[in-house]
Design a protein that fits this description.
- The chain is of the alpha/beta class.
- It has two domains: 190 residues, no CATH class; 280 residues, Alpha/Beta hydrolase fold, catalytic domain (Rossmann fold, 3-Layer(aba) Sandwich), CATH 3.40.50.
- 50% of the residues lie in helices and 9% in strands.
- The protein is built from 14 helices and nine strands.
- The strands form two sheets. A seven-stranded mixed β-sheet has the order 1-3-2-4-5-8-9, sandwiched between helices. A two-stranded antiparallel sheet has the order 6-7.
- Helix 4 crosses helix 6.
- It is elongated and about 90 Å long.
- It holds the Pfam family Hydrolase_4.
- InterPro entries: AB_hydrolase_fold, Hydrolase_4.
- This is Lysophospholipase.
Length: 516
């Protein structure tokens, strides 16, 4: 009696390998991210749409599982080359997935079902994804393609029968998959070449920083209190021609004469002088004269204005020069400070103005939080080369609070690029030349999810390398302060904690005796 033929063994299941590949890619992402200088929030419960370690891991894991299943497990074709191709796709597609997860789960996700904000949120995801892919994508591709190649080789060794079946598959099936592999492999190689080429070109593309240096011929310091007041009246006359928000005109708080110390404060991007009205009043009560200039393109009555789209780094330099010139007639010691974009302006005064007594850059926006220091030049070049887009800070909450109707809910991508261009000019000078200001300081928010603290540290170290002392105060991350730590109308503000520290930095040294 002939025995029945044995049933063929069921094909192996590759689910564990698919999950393992996703895990390997996710772990590689956690390792590579800090190595390339990308900053990730350690605080999971953020609500500003920022990337956390949790969303980074989840996004890369999900992308890795899906890509590995589609390119490897489903066709049961395991080779190192195919694994490298899979790693390339994981690297590229992880960017929008991670940022989308952050946008959904780390930004008031319970309100995310509002269809009115969907397009704006997608635009935000695509903008950040595109910028980070173009600046750091080539590094991610190299790292994850190596991981993918190793996984593909190992899975092929684990399942040699699958490799043999693929080799002896019907010709038409082999031809289809070989064509698919050639196409996907070619696309992967082209992606790597394009991203590496884009980064290389944008990194060496000149940002024309020469006009952003100090030109003594354009500086006219006020020789007296009267000259300072006359110069400020000219500022008021120019602003009278504009349709400004009533609270957004340049502000001068004066005791009617030159005093020992004058403080200049530059507000942040999309805000206006109202940001520092409470701070200015406290400084005024201490006996200081206070000057709060309006930045170019800011403070318009219509919060949806396009005025910000035309702002340039040259205008920021001009505003800085004019205000420091005016301040010479308002106080024996000139303290120059500012927040975010204003922090970059105060850093410019640190680098170039010897008549600045003390300078304090508060959370300076040299580069976005998501861009590593080495990619900042490339990011600035790309922002200025790409179309100028108006982007919502937060489509779910157009205004940070109901009382901040003077702050713009949108920013222009070229405005970001211009601020970063000014930051690059400061960095270039700081690496070769000692700063001119008499005192140097930075106030850094360790919980800041908007700006690159690493870039601020780079400037600090450059100044110290030139033999200068730099005071650095760090606001602890566990305070979970917002980026805007100055405006008292921010819903998450904590000026009771921040202002005393900031004012102590401003008042830290005794100014010289008042002029007669």
């Amino acid at each position: 009696m002939t025995s029945a033929p044995a049933e063929p063994a069921p094909p192996p299941r590759y689910m564990l390998w698919t999950l393992g590949a996703g895990l390997a890619f996710a772990l590689a992402g956690l390792v590579v991210t800090p190595l390339v200088g990308l900053q990730v929030s350690d605080i999971f419960g953020v609500n500003e749409g920022e990337i956390t370690w949790a969303t980074l891991f989840a996004g890369v894991f999900l992308t890795g599982c899906l890509v590995w299943w589609r390119l490897m497990s489903r066709p049961q074709m395991f080779t190192a080359w195919r694994g490298a191709v899979a790693g390339t796709y994981v690297a590229v597609f992880s960017y929008p997935v991670v940022i989308a997860l952050s946008e959904i789960f780390q930004r008031n996700w319970e309100e995310g079902s509002d269809p009115g904000t969907f397009i704006d949120r997608i635009q935000h995801v695509l903008l950040i994804s595109g910028l980070t892919i173009l600046t750091t994508g080539f590094a991610a591709i190299i790292a994850l393609s190596v991981v993918g190649a190793a996984l593909g080789w190992a899975e092929g060794r684990q399942f040699p029968d699958a490799v043999e079946r693929a080799r002896h598959a019907p010709r038409h099936r082999r031809g289809f998959f070989r064509t698919l592999l050639r196409v996907t492999g070619t696309v992967a190689v082209v992606l790597l070449i394009v991203l590496a080429g884009t980064f290389s070109i944008s990194s060496i593309w000149p940002l024309d920083t020469a006009p952003l240096t100090f030109d003594p011929a354009r500086s006219h310091p006020a020789a007296s209190y009267e000259e300072a007041i006359a110069a400020f009246e000219q500022v008021k006359a120019r602003e009278a021609q504009l349709d400004l928000h009533p609270r957004c005109h340049s502000t001068l708080l004066t005791h009617g004469q030159k005093v020992k110390r004058v403080v200049i404060f530059y507000h942040g991007l999309t805000n206006c002088p109202a940001q520092a009205d409470v701070l200015g009043a406290q400084l005024f009560d201490l006996g200081y004269n206070v000057l709060i200039p309006r930045l170019p393109g800011h403070g318009m009555a219509d919060p949806l204005t396009l005025a910000l789209a035309d702002m340039t780094a040259e205008q920021l330099v001009e505003t800085t020069m004019e205000s420091v010139d005016i301040a010479q007639g308002l106080g024996d010691e000139v303290v120059v400070t500012g927040l975010s974009a204003g922090g970059v302006m105060s850093a410019w005064a640190s680098q170039y103005r010897a008549d600045a007594g003390n300078t304090i850059s508060v959370a300076p926006f040299f580069s976005p939080h998501v861009i590593p220091t080495w990619a900042a030049h490339s990011a600035a070049s790309l922002l200025l080369a790409l179309p100028n887009i108006m982007v919502w800070w937060n489509p779910l909450e157009p205004f940070p609070s109901q009382t901040m109707d003077y702050a713009y809910p949108r920013y222009a991508t070229h405005a970001l690029g211009q601020i970063m261009r000014l930051g690059q000019a400061i960095d270039e000078s700081a690496q070769s030349t000692a700063p001119k200001a008499q005192g140097l300081a930075m106030l850094i928010n360790d919980a800041d999810l908007a700006v690159s603290n690493a870039f601020a540290n780079r400037i600090t170290e450059a100044w110290r390398a030139k033999g200068r002392e730099v005071e650095v105060e760090n606001l602890p991350a566990d305070r979970r302060l917002p980026h805007d730590i100055i405006d008292p109308r921010q819903e998450e503000q904590d000026i009771a904690f921040v202002y005393p520290i900031f004012i102590d930095m401003i008042s830290g040294t005794e100014p010289p005796p008042s002029s007669p």
